[in-house]
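Standup notes
- HV: blocked on the assembly model, inputs below
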Amino acid sequence: MGTRVALQAALSGYQVAIFDISPKALETSQKLMVKIVQHLAKGSGMDDTAGRNAIAAITFTDNPNVAIWDADLINESVTEDVEIKNAVWEQFGKIAPEKTIFTTNTSFMLPSMFAEISGRPEKFCALHFHDVFYSKVVDIMPHPGTDPQLVPLLMAFGRKLEQVPVLVKKENHGYLFNSMLMAFIGAAGKLLTGEVGSIEDIDKSWMVNFHMHMGPFGILDSIGLDTAWHVTKNLPDNASQRFAALLKSYIDAGKLGEKSGEGFYKYPNPAYKQEGFLD
Amino acid sequence: MGTRVALQAALSGYQVAIFDISPKALETSQKLMVKIVQHLAKGSGMDDTAGRNAIAAITFTDNPNVAIWDADLINESVTEDVEIKNAVWEQFGKIAPEKTIFTTNTSFMLPSMFAEISGRPEKFCALHFHDVFYSKVVDIMPHPGTDPQLVPLLMAFGRKLEQVPVLVKKENHGYLFNSMLMAFIGAAGKLLTGEVGSIEDIDKSWMVNFHMHMGPFGILDSIGLDTAWHVTKNLPDNASQRFAALLKSYIDAGKLGEKSGEGFYKYPNPAYKQEGFLD
């Protein structure tokens, strides 16, 4: 995610530095950017010179001081682990210039969890991206201590990054879209564990009614079954617990979804992408 | 719904009779068919002769005996009212030929509620259509007493009507798709009543992430807020009750959605269809 956000910011004309403690991760990030730029150029029919120049202008560094010495804004996309995020924000709070706005790209946590330790809660807000290039929505979610003046500024920043900015007026696990996504995926899980419908029939229902190229189980495979399990296992109701147990059985068998080659479907040619699936 | 199912069956080459107790409803049905056929012809670039011939071959009657004297299959789409459906199935059970298969197109009820009174539970099954021409899914949902041999027969019939048949293995309110639809719409309602997001921002999140031309509140307007209220008010959790109360306040103000000219949006030109909505 950090790679995609950084690349879009560079393409939008911002000076960007990308920081990671691992030099290997930085190398991977740069390679991924090259791939994305080639893909975008192919889609638009233009050459990828502008994209290559944007990447060349990005500072890739494992030194946090080099990354943020003059930063107007930080967007953090580290692992969804409270301890790690706390450590990162404590460090940034100490070394970032006074002007720097702090934003977290957390998927399922809340900005108030890190606002105090960052040392500048009033300049702290969630700025959450989805896919950046395909799903162009950015959630702006302040916590109760966020300076209200930060909100229009971040809305404008989101627009400059070619995203559709939406305001999450109160802290909410899952912002707007992910709340709805998890609700319908939970309903799909309940249909499956309750033996009401098959994986394929549940997906077909969704795909045909909404004219989409994936149903809930295809979407789960693309999200990753491990990620979905982390969210589902914390939900208190019985249906969610049964679905979490099913997800765990897939994970234990090494089936994490698209990234591992198999989840509910087998990749790279899952059944739902094959001709005749909807016959 | 009955109109659309009957028209598709006629277009697929079946001999069709459409029965309603009201001659006025039959007239409306015929007029709607003409409109649909014109619309379909326009979309395919062909003339509407085949469609007009199909309509001309349909028997429109307020006499149930005329409608079902030689029927192989009945698909019932009467009002979602247990008493009325019971009365209809009791009558059909008495006058239909022995060979006739009984199917109900109920949206949120269960076939087992009407199977006994029809007098032929083993030949009774839900056969539930969505939109027929735009959303081409048909749910086949047997009740515990349905003859299993009926299922493949109804799957084949669904395919002949150019639908994607899906099997609902156990009785479930909302089949497959409607269960998931109500789950994500419920989540959207919770975001709205909890003042987490605005109607527009919730819809934007859905539309942009899923590349759809409507979000949950646009969908609610097209379903009808009265229909959505009937389902939501029966759900036991607090969030659903709060959302049902909000829907009721719209209904009491005459805002039923697209059909009344206003719901969450104003029609015929709702904000979400206007240029710039996603800027």
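- HV (later): unblocked. Chain B has a mean pLDDT of 95. The interface with chain A takes residues 130, 135-137, 139, 159, 164, 166-170, 172, 175-177, 179-184, 186-188, 190-191, 194-198, 201-202, 204-206, 208-212, 216, 278-279 of chain B (CB under 8 Å).
- Next: hand off to the docking folks.
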